[in-house]
Each structure stands twice: as C-alpha cells, then as structure tokens.
Amino acid sequence: MDVDVVGLAESLRGEAERTNERRLLVLAGARERGYDTLESILDTLSVPITETTLVGPDDRLRCEQLPQSNAGELLGTTRDVIAVDAHDNLRPNALGKVVGAVDGGGLLVLLTPPLASWPDRRDEFDASLAVPPFDIDDVTGRFKRRLVETLRVHRGIAIVDLEADSVDADGLTDPAPQLPTEPPTPPADHRFPMATYEACLTTDQVDAVAALESLAETERAVVLEADRGRGKSSAAGLAAGAYAVAGEDVLVTAPAARNTAELFDRAGDLVECLESDAVVDSRRIETAAGGSVRFRNPDAAIDALASADIVMVDEAAALPVATLESLLVADRIAFATTIHGYEGAGRGFSVRFRERLSESDHDVIDCQLAEPIRYAAGDPVEVWAFRALLLDARPPVKPLVADAVPETVDYRQLEPADLLADEPLLREAFGLLVLAHYRTEPDDLARLLDAPNLEARALVYDGHVVSVALLAREGNLSPDTRAMMYEGGRVRGNMLPDVLTSQLRDEAAAEPAGLRVVRIATHHAARSRGLGSRLLECVRDEFGTAVDWLGTGFGATPGLLAFWRENGYRAIHVSTTRNDASGEYSALMLAPTNNDGQALNDRHADWFVRRFAALCSDALDDLEPDVARALLRSVADEAGPSLSLTDHEWRVVAGAAYGPGLFDIDPGPFRDLAVRYFVDDPAAVDLSDREERLFVLRVLQSRDWETVAERLGYHSTGQCMRALGDAVCPLVDCYGTDAALAVRDRFAER
C-alpha cells in the first residue's frame, strides 16, 4: 500500500493523546486487507495488548476478542484501542456500547466494506429485520447510508479507502492547545477524608462524592446520572473507599464484576493512600477499621443485603427493574447509571424504576455529572456517536407543542425516506419514543429506517411531533409457517401471533393480518388531552380496512389498561413471568376490525377468562390486585362462560354471605363468581376498592387470612373474614339463582 496508513494512525493517536480526545479510523475495503492493515497499526502503536479489544466474530488478533452480542461486557471498562469488524454484521446497540469504552487518547477502528457499496449489502443484523412474511430483500439500507454520511462529515474521523489506496479524510483537527484548569474545591463541611476530594478531577465529581456522603444517614438513596466518561463510577469508588476506611461494609453490585473495575480501582487507590496495611484486590477491599468493599452479582447481592451497611449499584440501567426493586430493601443505597447510552434495559431505570424509588421510604438525592473526565469536552467521537445513533435525540421543546389539542394537530405518515431527509423530524420523533419508553435503543433507529414490517405515524402541531406511534405488521402467515410455529418454531417480529400460537396453542392465530402498536408516546407538555387516543383513532381509520385486528402488548398497569380499554382494545392474555426490563407482567390486547379479527378476539378472551382464576393462585399469585382488577375489566363483557354454579354451590356462597357458612369450605364457586363480577362490572353492584382487592387477594390468589388482613388494614382476621362475607352479599343479590336467594331470605328473616 502506497498510502501510509500506519503513519496516519500514529498521527491520530498522537493528536488524541495531546487533547485527551478520541479519534475514529475507518478502514474501508476487503476484510482481509483491513485486518492486515490493522495488524500493522497495532504492531506500531505503543498500546499494550491488554488495552486493545477486537469486537468481531473471530479471534484474529493477539488481544481480547468479543462478539458484538457480548459488547455489553465493556460497560464500566476502558480501552486504548477498540476495533470493530462490521463486515458481516453491525449491531447499532453494540456500536453504542463500544464507543463509550474507548478512553481519552484512544482510537476506535471500524473495519467496513467499501463505503459506497456498504449500504446496499445485507448482513446478519439486516436479516433479523426481515420478519415473515417479508424477506431480507425487503430490508433497506437507510441506517447504514445515514451512518456513512455521518462518518464522512464529522470531524475527528479518518477514512481510508483500501480499494483505491487513498485517504478520503485524515481525521486530524489541529486543535488549539488546552489551557490548564484549576483543581476542584472540596466542600467546607466535608465528612470524608480530604484525600477523597483531592482524588476528584472535576467539580461535578466533587459534588457527586459530597452527595454520597449523605449515605451516612438512614433511609437514603443517591442517584448519580451521567453520560459515559463523566466519572460517576470513580465517584462511587471514592465514596466506597472512604466508608470502608471508616469501618463500614460496602456491598457493590453490577451486571458483571468487570463493570465495576473503575469503582474498585478508585476505592483501592484511596484505601491504600489512607491505610498502609489494607488488603486490596479487584473484587474485595478490607481495611484496618474492619470495613470492606465487596462485589456480589445481583442475585447474590439481594441475598446479602442484611449484612451490608451501604449498597452501591453500578451500571444500574443495565439491570432489570425487578432486580433494582429488590435492592431497595437496603436502607442506604446508591445507583450510578448512564444516560444517553441505552445500555441493557435502556431507560427502564429512568422511566420505570424512578417511579418505584420515589414511592419508597428513601430520601432521594439526585446528582448529575456533565463534565467529561475520561476524555475532553467536545470529544469528536462522542459528538459523532450521539448524532449517528441519536443518543441525545429529544422531542421538541415544550413551548413549541404546549398548546396542541386534538383539534389543532395533523396526522402524518413518517415514511423512512422522509425521516432520512429531514433530520429535525427524525430527532423529534425518535426522541419522543426514547423519553417515553424504557426499551427504545439504537437498534430501534435501524428498525425505524430499514425494517419492512414497521410503520410510523405521528400527530404534528405547527410542524413539530407531539405524538408518535410505531406500528408493526403481524400475522398473515402461510400454513407452513403457522404449522412450524405451532410445533415449537419461532418466528421473528410477530409477537402477538407467536404468543397465541406457541403458548396458547391456537394454530390459526397467525392467519388473520394484524397491526400491533409497538410504541405510542405523547409529549409530556401535551398529555391528558386525548392526543394519544386521537392518534390511535387515525391509525384505525387508515388501517382498519387493510387488517383484521389492531393489537398491542405492554407492561400492565391499571392506568395503561384503562387507556387501551377506552380506545376499544380488549385484554386476551397476560404473561406468566415478569418482564426483565419493566418488572411488570405483560398484557396483550386486541381491537378487531372485521369478523375474522372478532373471531380471534372472542375465542382468546373466552380462554383467558376461563383460566384466569387458576393463574392467580399459581403463576400470578403476586400480581398486584389493582392490575388484576383492571385486566378483567378490560376483557370483552361477553367473554368467558356464563356463571353456572350448581344449587349446592350457590347455597355455599349464599351461606357464607348471609349465614354461618365458610368461604374456606369450597373456594371454587367464589372464584367463578368473582371473575364474572370483574368481567361484567355490573352497575347494580357497588363494591369499594378495598373489597375488590379482598376478592383478588383471598378469593383469586388464595393468600392466607393473616396476610390479607395486614395488607388491607383489617384489625383482625375475623374482621377480614366478615368483610369478605359482606362483599359477597351484593353479588348473591345480583347473580344468585332461586337456591341462593332462598338461603339469603332464610337468614334475612332472623
């Protein structure tokens, strides 16, 4: 090769080190030539092999190698050089995680096909977008085309065309020399040793350590939020070390031990500075005062909460919400979490878990770190990644949409080509999805632009997106595909037909064509005005004649169930396990648009009602009572079998309500009666919320009397038992046969 690529790499590395920034080098061309060039670069650069990682399918170099599917292992770690082999596959999520792991002064190297032809090539990730009945030829290359455009126009990115033996861009920015900055000032009333604050590199980090001092008090929670490279893990480590020196036991958890490397490095450095005889290793630190910093994986950490004084959770956004909730048992706890990174559970932490945290007994202190530490502010690679993956996408600012109401908005198709040509429109629509949902991530940007089964629709106010829906075409599958699903095979993308076929054993469920609402979000400045309902109405008007059903699936809460019910959707299923990201059980709902869709809805609503009571005493025995109530009220009124208790069963029920009978003798008929009541929601019966929760906890979920009495605030189990009998009385009046009413009248005469 005539072009001195190695010399270019040395220049990029030198400039990156002088400015504490990163640089990106694209080696575009044949794969083998790219690897040969990369090996020459690594042989020349003064980078330890231990500080180099190859993210790709093969172990081609003498360094750490990870497949893109395992890129999350780099969270909480740093490398001087990371190379990504994008020839056979490029996962946007993996790229987002990799970028954040490159340290200041480091290089990110992309091995790609020729850039001109790359968008037209289909890879493994593209194949995942080709959900039946579509195939890979239906997948477009818009995401890669946009990615290539960003590579060409952003500063700090060098592009080498290996086929043409030329440098399309050298990536050098010739920045002005950096001016020295004053060290941050510790707070005057600090509790931690001065060395703790002397180790801080920015004022933000000082503020974070000071916030963590509050964990000396009981019932405290501290949340550190920052983009990657702002020093939140280091701040947590400094605080952990200071507490250990004071004799406290600090329990640290994260998705994996390697994610806490920075935390333990900083904690260990501080402890060794303050104590000469401390025991320090990568997962445990012990101090002379009897304190410690120890790592446990999340499940083990939950079991060890009682033995810890303080708990610190690193990379909290990558943990399931249910795990985070379990950790809240800790009296003093800190969460360090990444924003704009979409790691792991994405925004599950900020969208779902923060609600749980605010409802807890903890006094919560929030601290955000904005000033970069790992690399300088304005780092070109961070600027590029934020734009290329829309990591900082935001909906329009509040004043632009604050006056939007259903009568003043326009319904708009968001065609991928239009989004690609209109960056502000793309950022507003995607930003609204990001802020409103806990699972939106860079992969979803590629799906939005390339997936053939997806549609996007929006309400716009004065040209700005105020409400947006992401829609997926499902069903309409061939007999062979339906049979394969029924026999245990999986079909990508068809969530509702897949569940109804594989789990609920309905081989015909994937025959009707449907449209699932994958996401729907309304700007926070214009919520509770009917805009979401207006958007769903417009979607139904547009697609109602083209599909047999509209559907949705989501983490079930009473509010969301009520919203979908008000918009004509009816519950047909609830999952038997909690969603890892939201910590909630997922509900499936349908809105039929014709007879075929109605038939699908009717049979699954019927099956759902028939099995619900049994589920409540088994897999759903921890389902929140208010969710159970809302689920049954969201089923079609005519669903399920009619109430057909025998005369004897009615005498048992009426005897427990009006006479000396006992619920415990035969709970079965009470369960049938309770389910029928919730589904029908008869106007003639007016039970209190407390009485309905009593039905769920005791009748449906078979909780013991003591637990139910304590949960619902009854003074004794006897009072709780009498309350259940009183609550059954109006149901006997409403549904009871002659046999039941005869029992009622017999005891009413006494």
TrEMBL record:
Domain N-acetyltransferase, first and last residues per copy: 409-592
PROSITE patterns xref list: GNAT
GO terms, molecular function: 18S rRNA cytidine N-acetyltransferase activity; ATP binding; tRNA binding; tRNA cytidine N4-acetyltransferase activity
Ranges annotated as biased composition (Pro residues): 177-187
A GO-annotated cellular component: cytoplasm
Entry keyword Ubl conjugation: no
PANTHER family: N-ACETYLTRANSFERASE 10, RNA CYTIDINE ACETYLTRANSFERASE
Protein name listed in UniProt: tRNA(Met) cytidine acetyltransferase TmcA
Species for this entry: Natrinema hispanicum
Designated gene of the protein: tmcA
